[in-house]
Amino acid sequence: MKTPNYNAAGAKHEGRRLLVLDDDASVGETVCAIADRTGIQARWATSAQEFFAQLALWEPQYIIIDLVMPDIDGVEMLRRLALVNCEATVIVASGLGTRVLEAAGRVAAENGLKIAGVLHKPFTSRSLRQLLAAAVPGANHELHSQHPAAKPEITHGELEEALRHGRVVTYYQPKISCFDGSLTGFEALARWEDPEFGLISPDYFIPFAEASGQILPLTDYVVHTAVRWLADNFPVANISIAVNISARVLEDTGFSARLMDACLQYGIPPGRITLEITESSTVQNPVTALEVLTQFRIKGFQLSIDDFGTGYSSLSQLAGLPFSQMKIDKTFVLSARKSAESRKIATSIVRLAHALGLQVTGEGVEDEWSLRFLQDIGCDSAQGFLFAPALSPESAVAWVRTWRPQEIGCMFRGMYDF
Ligand code: C2E
Ligand code: MG
Ligand code: MG
């Protein structure tokens, strides 16, 4: 073990510490020199045994692991790190191909390790510095990561009461044109405001509502509030509203009439309403889906395939169903910066959507890099914390008044105009 700045007493060091495992001493030395220049203290070990001894003694916040070691394979190393409840941020490095490296990165994440990214060997000093910088959580992400809380248990009666007393509320997240930065619409997202637990996540209560059948009154409520909100605040503007529709709702023969009634009641043309449907919803009963979706389109509603890339639909089904829009699942956008695979998938999704004549939205846009990436691959719209999280009805209206695309560090059309 080379320990140029070793503290013999084993006392805790101040500052940022990086521990490197690589059987090639010259790699360890180079990483330490680069890290040192960025103000990070670094040490390296050439065997797993040395590495774990130093991990316990020195408590580094960052770790770089070579996947191919003579005495232990990289996956086993990641498992052992998880077993010792390692809290350091992990970077996996290797000369193996991209797919292997990224799969190893996923192994690390799935074992509960904090993974900052993968380092392709041979690497440049710049790519290492970028990865180390990315290991420090971005302030923007922290600001908006206000995930509504989970709740220990839900009962049918509680959800019914929440719906009756208006504790299930509709929030609105803006959608922006990648082209000129203008607001194109909002997605309506359900929230449960519980007096005891605060905001409860839809990821928690929507599956329950789907299983209990309460998704029907819940969706009716979201549709009603969203269409009314649009009519009250943007009666004539060319702004659309998207509502999420579960498979169960598609099977309800009365839903389409109730949706049309809401449009008539509030004077909103169906063309301003988008129904977001997940891929898996359309495969449960492909014939019903085809009939129902075609009826919606005939009435003038827009149809968007949500979370594309994570469901189970076949491409022939996609081509056969009358969608007008597609949303790239946020996992691809969130990981695009670190994952060449995600970038390739996102790029292919945009090409596929355009080839089928669909408009594409990228969700999960948390930073300027992601927006620029989506602009580069020709994506039409973007949604994410970079612009705003889902907002309460009043905050969403206030947000529109203050939205200035030029304050985002990306170029939109019109910015060059004099
Ligand atoms: P979804 O339809 O894919 O909605 C997008 C989700 O991504 C929302 O989560 C949104 O808050 C989140 N999101 C948006 N931008 C970002 C970002 O930049 N970074 C990250 N990390 N996340 C971002 P939310 O509101 O928790 O909703 C989760 C899911 O619950 C929705 O996914 C949708 O499938 C479902 N859902 C929400 N409301 C309803 C509803 O009224 N009916 C039905 N059937 N499902 C709903
Ligand atoms: Mg959606
Ligand atoms: Mg989605």
- Number of helical segments with 4 or more residues: 18
- Widest β-sheet, arrangement of strands: 6-7-9-10-11-12-13-14
Unreliably modeled segments: 1-12, 136-146
Number of strands: 14
Give the overall form.
elongated
Radius of gyration: 25 Å
Q: CA-to-CA gap between the ends?
A: 62 Å
The CATH superfamily of the largest domain is known as EAL domain
Helix content: 40-55%
What is the C-level CATH assignment of the largest domain? Alpha Beta
Distinct small molecules: ligand C2E, magnesium ion
Going by helix content, strand content and strand pairing, the class is alpha/beta
Considering the chains and any ligands shown, give keywords for the structure.
disordered N terminus; Rossmann fold; 8-stranded mixed β-barrel; 418 residues; 44% helix; alpha/beta; binds ligand C2E; 14 strands
What does this structure look like?
This protein is α/β, with parallel strands linked by helices and 418 residues long. It has 18 helices and 14 strands. It has 2 domains: 5-143, Rossmann fold, CATH 3.40.50.2300; 156-408, Alpha-Beta Barrel (TIM Barrel). It has helices at 25-37, 48-58, 74-83, 98-110, 125-134, 139-144, 156-164, 202-212, 215-233, 247-250, 255-266, 279-284, 286-299, 315-320, 330-335, 340-355, 368-376, 393-402, and strands spanning 17-21, 41-45, 62-66, 89-94, 114-120, 168-177, 183-194, 198-200, 240-245, 273-278, 302-308, 325-328, 359-363, 381-383. The protein has an 8-stranded mixed β-barrel with strand order 6-7-9-10-11-12-13-14, surrounded by 5 helices. A 5-stranded parallel β-sheet has the order 2-1-3-4-5, with helices on both faces. Helix 9 runs parallel beside helix 11. The radius of gyration is 25 Å and the shape is elongated. Residues 187, 244, 276, 306 line the site of one magnesium ion (MG).
